[in-house]
Amino acid sequence: MSKWVQGSVVGHRRWTDSLHSLQVAAPEVTFVAGQFGRLALPAPPGSPEDMVGRPYSFVNAPGTGPHEFYFITVPDGPLTPRLAALSPGDPVWLLPRANGFFSVAEVQASDVLWCLATGTGLGPFLSILRTAEPWEKFERVVLVHAVRLPEELTYRDVIGAIAAAHPGAFTAISVVSRGSAPDALPGRIPALIADGRLEARAGVALAAESSHVMLCGNPAMVEDTQKVLEARGMRRHRRKEPGHVTVETYW
Ligand SMILES: Cc1cc2nc3c(=O)[nH]c(=O)nc-3n(C[C@H](O)[C@H](O)[C@H](O)COP(=O)(O)OP(=O)(O)OC[C@H]3O[C@@H](n4cnc5c(N)ncnc54)[C@H](O)[C@@H]3O)c2cc1C
Ligand SMILES: NC(=O)c1ccc[n+]([C@@H]2O[C@H](COP(=O)([O-])OP(=O)(O)OC[C@H]3O[C@@H](n4cnc5c(N)ncnc54)[C@H](OP(=O)(O)O)[C@@H]3O)[C@@H](O)[C@H]2O)c1
Question: Which one, out of 77, 105, 138, 153, has a CA that is 20 to 30 A from the CA of 85?
């Protein structure tokens, strides 16, 4: 258990029956916006490991506390039903160091940063967009949150605050696939790119010469969106081979 740092739950927001945000006090844990940490609880007796741990993206901005994590409960999942049962005052364990390359520092400057998320993949973008870096590196930022149901359009207050802090530079777009919500586009991200509706709503072009795209969430969305972007000449960004698309898949 020694590699883990003990944190304390200081807040728990239940957005829906399955969507939760946990606030955790653990000041010694540091990260770069867009990175993920690891949350853990003691493993059940008889388990081969001491702890059950899983990666979670930080939602808060670096240097601000408490840490925040946004997650969906996976029925019968080894960890999420237990995280969903935590209350303020309960202990939860974290790794002291964060990981991952899903950050603006890894991305080349361009005109437009497209942040495309499904479900809980919204989390790292909220951290990134609450730092100064994307606004210094890009003239415009478009955040797309694609969910199944209208009630899963969470963090509207945080997104509104980001919009208020960056007038003229920021566009937030909601996408709902199984229902409808005022101002939300219907359908899925890849189709909305392919038929031009996402760009029409954003009012900017999604093109290789002017854009960098960050994709986070459902691996099928990440794969299908990359195919649509490849057709526009946009390829995966790697440190040794700069490109236009940076991805983080959650499973
Ligand atoms: C780099 C990275 C960052 C991650 N960050 C987050 C995060 O910020 N928030 C979060 O909710 N999850 C995140 N995950 C997923 C998380 O680590 C767990 O897998 C998830 O919370 C389920 O844990 P579990 O032990 O209950 O079930 P697991 O046994 O880990 O997962 C069981 C199944 O649940 C499904 N699943 C897992 N995660 C999700 C999800 N987020 N949305 C929908 N279906 C899912 C998949 O089909 C998976 O095979 C991240 C994963 C990775 C690799
Ligand atoms: N505990 C519960 O009661 C509960 C409640 C809700 C969900 N869940 C489970 O949690 C998991 C994830 O739920 P979630 O809603 O956060 O995430 P999700 O299934 O990833 O859906 C989020 C959005 O991504 C879209 N999407 C899926 N595949 C795509 C693709 N290939 N290309 C583009 N977009 C795609 C979905 O559209 P579509 O709607 O068209 O698929 C939806 O709009 C599911 O396995 C679900 O069964 C559990």
Answer: 153
pLDDT, tens only, 177-194: 999 999 999 999 999 999
Instruction: Please identify which residue in the block is written with the tokens 């991952």.
Output: 100
Ligand 1 lined by 80 (C-beta under 6 Å): yes
Q: Cα Rg for the chain, rounded, in angstroms?
A: 18
The pTM of the full predicted model, rounded to 2 decimals, is: 0.97
- Whether the CB-CB separation of 198 and 117 falls below 8 Å is answered with no
Rounded CA gap, 158 and 182, in Å? 18
Helix or strand or coil: residue 74?
Answer: coil
Atom of ligand 1 nearest to the CA of 248: 1
Tokens of 84: 């969903």
Taking the C-alpha atoms of residue 122 and residue 145, their distance in angstroms, rounded to an integer, is: 6
- Which atom of ligand 1 approaches the CA of 99 most closely? 1
| Residue 103 contacts residue 115 (beta carbons within 8 Å) | no
Torsion over CA: 141, 110, 177, 193 (sign): positive
Minimum CA distance residue for ligand 1 atom 12: 71
